[in-house]
Amino acid sequence: MSTHYHPFHLVDPSPWPYVGASGAFATTFGSVIYFHYSQTSLLIVGLILLTVTFIFWWRDVIREATFQGHHTAIVRQGLKYGMLLFILSEVCFFVSFFWAFFHSSLAPAVELGAVWPPTGIDVLNPFAVPLLNTAILLSSGATVTWAHHAIISGQRKSALLGLLVTVLLGMIFSALQGMEYYEAPFAIADSVYGSTFFVATGFHGFHVLIGTTFLAVCLVRLINHQFTKHHHFGFEAASWYWHFVDVVWLFLYVCIYWWGA
């Protein structure tokens, strides 16, 4: 067994980058095939490969951090920079959706009736389910902060309660958004309004599902005593991501639901 005298973690060879890339490739082409020919075989294979990658790659990272002691202070600092850069890339991702929305809404084309929302579109009431979802998501931001401070203070029961409430609020948000989509009086094919609305809010909903899963994994790890006062970056990264989801929703609510209506 070799001994190293540096604080960095040189990862062992792993199959998961290759499996994940294959899953992403299969999912992308499977989606195109499904859209054009309604065949789901390749899409299902891709989603299965991605799910397997998520589960086992997370397992390996948790094992490295919790049981093998590879996540030193220097390694955690690098992980923090990586997470911040990832969130920055997500910001750029959502900026493109807002760009498309304002490009079409600030100067509506004559094909839309030169008005916004376009002629014939019956928009959603911003003070109904969207406002309720805003309150739910902001409350979840408060509870995840509560859980974070509880972990730092060593208050295990408060941390568990705060994180459990956050996960439940995320699930309620997704359920309400699903109901809103089901009852929406317009579809994604209804002019550029439907396209920008469902793409922007739909991708945000997808990020809520990812964030809820992220926090649920952290909840299981917290139950299993895998977080300490000074070593809980997994939860910290999840809370950063969740706050990002909160902020994006505020912009979506103000711009698309309220101003856009």
From TrEMBL:
Q: What is this protein's function?
A: Component of the cytochrome c oxidase, the last enzyme in the mitochondrial electron transport chain which drives oxidative phosphorylation. The respiratory chain contains 3 multisubunit complexes succinate dehydrogenase (complex II, CII), ubiquinol-cytochrome c oxidoreductase (cytochrome b-c1 complex, complex III, CIII) and cytochrome c oxidase (complex IV, CIV), that cooperate to transfer electrons derived from NADH and succinate to molecular oxygen, creating an electrochemical gradient over the inner membrane that drives transmembrane transport and the ATP synthase.
> What is the protein's given name?
Cytochrome c oxidase subunit 3
Q: Which SUPFAM superfamilies match?
A: Cytochrome c oxidase subunit III-like
Output the InterPro entries linked to this UniProt entry. Cyt_c/ubiquinol_Oxase_su3, Cyt_c_oxase_su3_dom, Cyt_c_oxidase-like_su3, Cyt_c_oxidase_su3-like_sf, Cyt_c_oxidase_su3_a-hlx
Which Pfam families does the UniProt record give? COX3 (PF00510)
List, for all copies, the residue spans of the domain called Heme-copper oxidase subunit III family profile: 4-261
Q: What is its main location?
A: membrane
Give the molecular function GO annotations.
cytochrome-c oxidase activity
Could you tell me the membrane topology recorded for this protein? Multi-pass membrane protein
One Gene Ontology cellular component: mitochondrion
Organism from which the protein derives: Haliclystus antarcticus (Antarctic stalked jellyfish)
- Would you identify the family this protein belongs to, as annotated? Belongs to the cytochrome c oxidase subunit 3 family.
Which regions span the lipid bilayer? Answer: 41-58, 79-102, 127-147, 159-177, 197-220, 240-260
Subcellular location, in the record's words? Membrane
Q: Does the keyword rRNA processing apply?
A: no
Q: Could you provide one GO biological process annotation from this protein's UniProt record? A: mitochondrial electron transport, cytochrome c to oxygen
Q: Which residues form a coiled coil?
A: none
Primary gene name: cox3
What are the record keywords, sorted?
A: Membrane, Mitochondrion, Translocase, Transmembrane, Transmembrane helix
